[in-house]
Amino acid sequence: MGLRAADTYANCIKAATPLPLQDLVVDLRERLRAVCRELDGADPRTHTQKLATYHAWMALPLKPSNVRGPSHVLLRYLELELSRHVLRNIARFCLRAHTLRVETGSWQSHNRICDKCDLHDVQDKKHVLFLCLCLEMCYLRRRFEEQFADFAGRTHIGDTGAFYFDNIGAEDVKLFLLKQTYKSFLFLSETMDIFCRAGNV
User: Fold this and answer.
1) Percent of the chain at pLDDT above 70?
2) Residue 46 has pLDDT above 70, yes or no
3) What is the pLDDT of residue 74?
4) Which end of the chain is more exposed for a tag (fewer CB within 10 A), N or C?
5) Which residues are CB-contacts of 150 (< 8 A; sequence separation ≥ 6)?
6) Count of domains in the chain?
7) Do residues 37 and 128 share a domain?
8) Whether residue 140 is found in the same domain as residue 176
9) What's the pLDDT at 26?
């Protein structure tokens, strides 16, 4: 469904003849682009689809549909020498296969508000990366302070050691997540450990 030459492909399969692979690849890429175009501008904090969150905050730009080779760029964490635990945490974070309250609120009977701080904000990627006031996250942000250099003018440091940010938008979240540095991946993994206790699940 959704492929321009769907009838041609179906007939090839029925007749057990080779598929025109170049055409199929271009059609599949166009279909992927159409799905992404539908999600352009979707607010990941209010949209319920996981794909909207991934598209807004995690997805790397697609290559043109007629270019040979893969239509996407491989996420860098898959190419680095990271422990299995760190890889698992990053994959769970990227794919929204975690237990942040934005996710568990869709299948458990609770609101999606963060239970680790009193900010009364949805516990999603934006919240845990930049806004949560729980001391564990504040200390973690301070340890990885160089990863937040792009947001230096918006840093707040409280008397209790709170280290958080102000005026963070969806583009800022994407900018941070697309850094794809070794240390940023370690930060994401430790964030998962704090909020999801991913190593124990």
Assistant:
1) 75
2) no
3) 66
4) N
5) 172, 175, 176
6) 2
7) no
8) yes
9) 79
Residues 98 and 154 in one domain: yes
Mean pLDDT over 129-151 rounds to 90
> Which residues contact residue 123 at a Cβ distance below 8 angstroms, ignoring those fewer than 6 apart?
100, 101, 102, 112, 113, 114, 115, 116, 132, 195
pTM: 0.71
Say if CB 96 and CB 108 are below 8 A apart: no
Q: What is the largest CA-CA distance in the chain?
A: 73
Q: How many CB atoms lie within 10 A of CB 9?
A: 16
In a domain, 64, yes or no: no
Q: Are residues 109 and 181 in the same domain?
A: yes
| In-domain check, residue 63 | no
Q: Is 65 within a domain? A: no
pLDDT at 3: 82
| Backbone phi, psi, residue 163, to 5° | -135, 105
If asked whether residues 15 and 50 sit together in one domain, one would say: yes
Q: What is the mean pLDDT of residues 68-86?
A: 77
30 lies in which domain range?
A: 6-57
Beta-carbon contacts of residue 38 (< 8 Å; ≥ 6 apart): none
Residue 189 is predicted with a pLDDT of: 94
